[in-house]
Amino acid sequence: MAGPQDHPPEAAADDPLAALTAEIVACRACPRLVAWREAAAAAPPRRYAGQPYWARPVPGFGDPAARILLLGLAPAAHGGNRTGRVFTGDRSGDFLFAALDRAGLASRPWSTAADDGLALRGAYLAAAVRCAPPGNAPLPDERDRCAPFLARELALLPGVRVIVALGAYAWAAALRAIAADGSIVPRPTPRFGHGAEARVGELHLLGSFHPSQQNTFTRRLTAAMLDEVLARAVSLAGC
């Protein structure tokens, strides 16, 4: 039976980002999410039967010197919750990593596992909520308990100049994280939309529809549309 992998990362004493990663991975603050992520691991679909599941919170990953932070909603139950890396091992990730490769931000256009050798260049990838939620819908208290992780992660990525929010949920989470650092969010609050842009403090916030199958299969989000947003991010970040 599939179950949680038993090798969470160890924190390096002199690496605050690694220490935060270890703290994220060990979190059990939301009982509903803990139960859901572990239940998904215990009863995987047939295509993943027998595979080990991460079944823990999924930390961010990428280039510590990143100038672009890409932010999603949460790991997929049989994507990041299985592989231990956000957007890795699901169709959304397939679409996203191909786009990152075209933009020069990834070492190759695909990713299947956390140890497959993929590297991000000038980019860092994270999620607003670190555990897979039922129905892709975290509760407000779960969102709020997880929010400090993103704010702290952003503070530990001092090179970031652009945040690309993949969906409206990530857009709102990015604004909260920026505000937590002391920046003043404009009023009225910038509204999400595909291709939306906002300047908040020293950061540029860009919006893109999420690369979910619901969006990509219906062509609400096309490869060309995501390429355009990423090209704008690269330009603003000076990558």
List keywords for this structure.
single chain; 239 residues; alpha/beta; Uracil-DNA Glycosylase, subunit E; six-stranded mixed beta sheet; 8 helices; 6 strands; 11% strand; globular
CATH topology: Uracil-DNA Glycosylase, subunit E
CATH superfamily annotation = Uracil-DNA glycosylase-like domain
The portion of residues forming beta strands comes to 5-15%
CATH C-level label: Alpha Beta
How is the main sheet built?
6 strands, mixed
The number of distinct helices, counting runs of at least 4 residues, comes to 8
Please state how the strands of the largest beta sheet are arranged side by side: 1-3-2-4-6-5
Structure in words:
This protein is α/β, with parallel strands linked by helices and 239 residues long. The chain has one domain (16-237): Uracil-DNA Glycosylase, subunit E (3-Layer(aba) Sandwich). 36% of the residues lie in helices and 11% in strands. The chain has 8 helices and 6 strands; from the N terminus they run H-H-E-E-H-H-E-H-E-H-E-E-H-H. The protein has helices at 16-25, 31-42, 80-83, 91-102, 140-155, 168-180, 213-216, 223-237; strands at residues 61-62, 68-72, 123-127, 162-166, 197-200, 203-208. Strands 1-3-2-4-6-5 form a 6-stranded mixed sheet, sandwiched between helices. Helix 4 (91-102) packs across helix 8 and helix 5 (140-155) packs across helix 6. The chain is globular, with a radius of gyration of 17 Å. The chain starts with 15 loop residues before the first helix and ends with a helix. The model has no long low-confidence stretch (mean pLDDT 94).
